[in-house]
């Protein structure tokens, strides 16, 4: 399954399906890129290998909120590397265009690994059960069958997410401390305007996605997840 999914995701990223429709809400200050800098960039792109970047093969789009402040909500574009059957890692951006700002990172682990974590550590992790079953987490641009298989793999996993640039609030530069982010766990929590806007840009219907995932088997959320205990509050 992993080979099939990786192939489908890589193809989707290479062909650009489902991307380039979400602009960053932030304009970073600074002078325009000079001809010298552009030449250096082109040279580096031609000559240097980037194995960690090349390993990114999956694009997921979902929503986060600040631990301790559910009013602070935002869309999050995840670019994921599948490290093995139990661990994934994602870099998170505020858009899917070239100038998207790096917001943070998410580590995704299997239920088996989550259950082995110390109780104190579990408080930083959120479940993906609701995100998958509700249709609010999507993998744009890939065939429905491949997305269904991918979501069946993700549904019982757990994520630990830190945002370092709060682009919903800081519109110029990354300011302040990193923030622990959480995933939504029930209907009525996510701002419906955010969801409607995402559906419009991706030309989709979350209600239909939700219905199509009714057959994805789930486990009860493991004890200790979704407790939202951040070491610092914004």
Automatic annotation (TrEMBL):
Q: Does the keyword rRNA processing apply?
A: no
Keyword Nucleotide-binding (UniProt): no
Q: What is this protein called?
A: OBAP family protein
Matches recorded under Pfam families:
DUF1264
* Extent of the signal sequence: 1-19
* Alphabetic keyword roster: Signal
């Amino acid at each position: 399954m992993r080979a099939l999914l990786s192939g489908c995701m890589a193809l989707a990223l290479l062909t650009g399906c489902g991307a380039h429709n979400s602009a960053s809400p932030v304009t970073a200050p600074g002078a325009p890129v000079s001809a010298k800098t552009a030449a250096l960039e082109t040279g580096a792109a031609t000559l240097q290998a980037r194995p960690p970047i090349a390993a990114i093969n999956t694009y997921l789009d979902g929503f986060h909120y600040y631990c301790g402040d559910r009013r602070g909500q935002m869309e999050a574009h995840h670019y994921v590397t599948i490290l093995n059957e139990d661990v994934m890692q994602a870099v998170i951006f505020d858009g899917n265009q070239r100038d998207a700002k790096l917001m943070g990172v998410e580590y995704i682990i299997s239920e088996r690994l989550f259950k082995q974590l110390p109780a104190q550590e579990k408080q930083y992790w959120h479940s993906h059960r609701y995100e998958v079953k509700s249709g609010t987490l999507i993998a744009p641009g890939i065939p429905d069958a491949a997305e269904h298989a991918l979501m069946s793999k993700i549904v019982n996993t757990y994520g630990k997410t830190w945002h370092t640039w709060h682009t919903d609030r800081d519109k110029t530069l990354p300011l302040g401390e990193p923030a622990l982010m959480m995933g939504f766990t029930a209907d009525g929590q996510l701002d419906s305007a955010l969801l409607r806007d995402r559906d419009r840009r991706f030309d989709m219907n979350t209600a239909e996605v939700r219905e199509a995932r009714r057959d994805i088997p789930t486990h009860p959320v493991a004890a200790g997840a979704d407790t939202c205990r951040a070491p610092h509050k914004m």
